[in-house]
Amino acid sequence: MTKLLFFGRTRDAAGCGEMDCEIPAAIESVADLRAWIASRDPALGAVLAARDIRVAADQCICVNEGASIRGASEIAFMPPLSGG
Amino acid sequence: MIRTLITPDPFSPETEMQALSKERDSEAGALASFVGYCRSANGAVSQLELDHYPGFTEAEVSRLAHSVAARHDLLDLLVIHRIGVIPANDPIVLVAALSCHRAEAFAAVAEMMDYLKTDAPFWKSETGPDGSRWIEPVAADYARRAEHTK
Question: Is residue A84 part of a domain?
Fold first, then answer.
């Protein structure tokens, strides 16, 4: 089971801050994950497809779309960061 | 000493500054600080909500503070950042730096704030009479942040 975390505008799109899901073994990369979510929920997928939405697997930011997310217990979708 | 605190609780910048000033050692000749407040903008903003990523946000803010302190010759660096619902006019963030001379303290505070604006895992929404909207960094924020990596 993997916990998906949604922040900022992705939380609005998902309708919640986190959800648990069983990610199929064939889903290996960030790009695979975005496509898999879009196939299940096109509206959420469209929001997550934006290039300024970064992905972190187990609190490490994935450097590109080919980065592996296999085995991650927690995957976060993060719009542009904005503190201060 | 580098201290970072991410907290849902209100804090008093004045109390924190007094404590930092009292703790300073004989080498410290400069204390610079910045306080960011939730603007009410004449009633256009009733509150901000700061979302964060528990664990990751604390680690990243600490990492950023250590990187700023490493580039400037600081004696102390304090960063307090609120999360959760922040009513208009409340302080959101305090950054304070102690150093021997003023240049390092001024530079460190400005740099830490620029990093908090674009590199710290917070997501900010603003609520007013017309509802809520997410606030994301603008080009000027990224330009200021880029100045520090030249």
Answer: no
The answer to whether position A83 is within a domain reads no
Q: What is the CATH number of domain B2-149?
A: 3.90.1170.40
**What pLDDT, on the 0 to 100 scale, is given for residue A84?**
86
Whether the CB of B6 is below 8 Å from some CB of chain A: the reply is: no
What sign does the dihedral A75-A79-A80-B1 (CA atoms) show? negative
pTM, rounded to two decimals: 0.92
- What CATH number is attached to the domain comprising A48? 3.10.20.30
User: Nearest C-alpha of chain A: how many angstroms from B69?
Assistant: 18
How far does the CA of residue A33 sit from the closest CA of chain B (Å)?
20
- The tokens for B99 are 């150093």
- Exposed, middle or buried: residue A48 (CB in 10 Å: 0-12, 13-18, 19+)? buried
Count of domains observed in chain A: 1
All structural domains of chain B with their residue ranges: 2-149
3 state SS of B110: helix
pLDDT digits (tens, 9 = 90+) for B96-126: 999 999 999 999 999 999 999 999 999 999 9
**Model ipTM value:** 0.91
pLDDT score recorded for residue B90: 96
How close B121 gets to chain A, by Cα (Å)? 5
Which chain B residues are closer than 8 Å to A9 by Cβ?
134
Residues 31-90 of B with CB under 8 A from A: 36, 50-51, 53, 55-56, 59, 61, 81
Q: Which amino acid is at A48?
A: L
